[in-house]
């Protein structure tokens, strides 16, 4: 027997006009009414091909990538990598920007979930603290999986990001391998956990080597001008490190450019290593060695984690997963100092 709108109306108590708007996905309908009508339509075996948007939802996972998007090559590279992974996984990815996220993220996510279009979300907002996530969880339903790509200590939602500690450790190990014994570091913002992880990995390796010293540090902020300022601070300090680990590529590029303008030769006078291995490293002169972070690999792991969460009823778990990093060696580091 053919199921009609009249049958759904009898089942739910809603008018035929309301049911028609829900099944056609037009007009403003309350979340409660929409869910009750769609559930009734499925129970009565109403043809799914006649429900607007139904097939799209079944064929594709709609993922919201929520971030406070900034100008620059890092965010472009991050989004490009996640999008490539999404395309390979047959996932529809939408980039959504939230202004002043620490103030607005709770309402933003509440409205996003209420729209009923997105199935899950990736959050990449490095400024958010643990208390921000705690407040966010107050409005997050269990059937809406969320994964963060930004690191916080003591994660309370699933977090997938790069192994910053290993990146810093590898940087110091490479310096030691190439004979650099007096080294320096340009740190990222102290409020960001990722910055602290990179510094800790770098410093821990140095502490394990009696003949290696961290002779100079500069508190940077991941911005270009910070890289310029760090070079001048190093010169004024008189510490003369043989190599410097600069904790992101934008600051590293600024550091190298400023060194050259001030008649210093890279890497003969000083070695430089960046972090993230963005395209700018390959286009600089000299080319810049950098800790490589594979954004597409990050995307694959993140999307797979979201899919796995559906089989776990989407419940939020504070599991931290770290994506391995490696080093891309280029002209800004010299192997001529290797000690026999």
Describe the protein's architecture and organization:
With 340 residues, the protein is of the alpha/beta class. It folds into two domains: 137 residues, 3-Layer(aba) Sandwich (Rossmann fold), CATH 3.40.50.2300; 130 residues, Rossmann fold, CATH 3.40.50. It contains 13 helices and twelve strands. The strands form three sheets. Strands 7-6-8-9-10-12 form a six-stranded mixed sheet, with helices on both faces. Strands 2-1-3-4 form a four-stranded parallel sheet. The protein has a two-stranded parallel sheet with strand order 5-11. Helix 5 links the parallel strand 1 and strand 2. Helix 8 packs parallel to helix 9. The mean pLDDT is 89.
Salient structural properties:
340 residues, Rossmann fold, 2 domains, six-stranded mixed sheet, alpha/beta
CATH class of the largest domain: Alpha Beta
Shape: elongated
Number of helices: 13
How many strands appear in the DSSP assignment?
12
**Termini, distance in Å?**
86 Å
| Count of spatially separate domains | 2
Helix content: 40-55%
CATH topology heading of the largest domain: Rossmann fold
Radius of gyration: 25 Å
Main-sheet strand order equals: 7-6-8-9-10-12
Low-confidence stretches: none
Strand count, sense and barrel status of the largest sheet are: 6 strands, mixed
Determine the CATH superfamily of the largest domain.
Answer: Response regulator
* Strand/helix succession: HHHHEHEHEHEEHEHEHEHEHEHEE
Mean pLDDT: 89
Strand share of the residues?
Answer: 15-25%
* Overall CATH architecture of the largest domain: 3-Layer(aba) Sandwich
């Amino acid at each position: 027997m053919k199921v009609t709108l009249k049958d759904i109306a009898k089942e739910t108590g809603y008018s035929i006009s309301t049911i028609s708007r829900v099944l056609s996905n037009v007009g403003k309908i309350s979340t409660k009414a929409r869910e009750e009508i769609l559930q009734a339509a499925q129970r009565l075996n109403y043809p799914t091909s006649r429900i607007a948007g139904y097939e799209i939802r079944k064929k594709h996972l709609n993922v919201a990538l929520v971030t406070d998007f900034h100008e620059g090559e890092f965010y472009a590279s991050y989004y490009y990598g996640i999008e490539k992974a999404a395309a390979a996984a047959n996932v529809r990815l939408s980039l959504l920007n939230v202004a002043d996220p620490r103030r607005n993220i709770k309402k933003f996510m509440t409205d996003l979930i209420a729209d009923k279009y997105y199935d899950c979300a990736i959050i990449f907002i490095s400024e958010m603290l643990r208390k921000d996530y705690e407040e966010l969880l107050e409005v997050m339903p269990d059937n809406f999986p969320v994964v963060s790509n930004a690191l916080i200590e003591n994660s309370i939602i699933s977090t997938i990001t790069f192994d910053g500690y290993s990146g810093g450790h590898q940087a110091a190990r490479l310096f030691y391998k190439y004979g650099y014994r007096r080294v320096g570091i340009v740190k990222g913002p102290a409020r960001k956990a990722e910055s602290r992880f990179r510094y800790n990995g770098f410093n821990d390796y140095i502490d394990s080597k009696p003949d290696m010293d961290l002779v100079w540090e500069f508190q940077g902020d991941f911005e270009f001008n910070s890289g310029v300022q760090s070079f001048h601070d190093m010169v004024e300090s008189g510490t003369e490190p043989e190599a410097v680990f600069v904790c992101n590529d934008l600051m590293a590029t600024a550091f190298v450019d400023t060194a050259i303008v001030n008649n210093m030769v890279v890497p003969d006078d000083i070695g430089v290593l960046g972090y993230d291995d963005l395209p700018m490293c390959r286009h600089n002169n000299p080319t810049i060695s950098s800790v490589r972070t594979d954004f597409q690999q990050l995307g694959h792991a993140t999307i797979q984690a979201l899919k796995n969460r559906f089989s776990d009823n989407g419940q939020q778990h504070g599991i931290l997963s770290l994506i391995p990093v490696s080093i891309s060696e280029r002209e800004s580091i010299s192997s001529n100092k290797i000690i026999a």
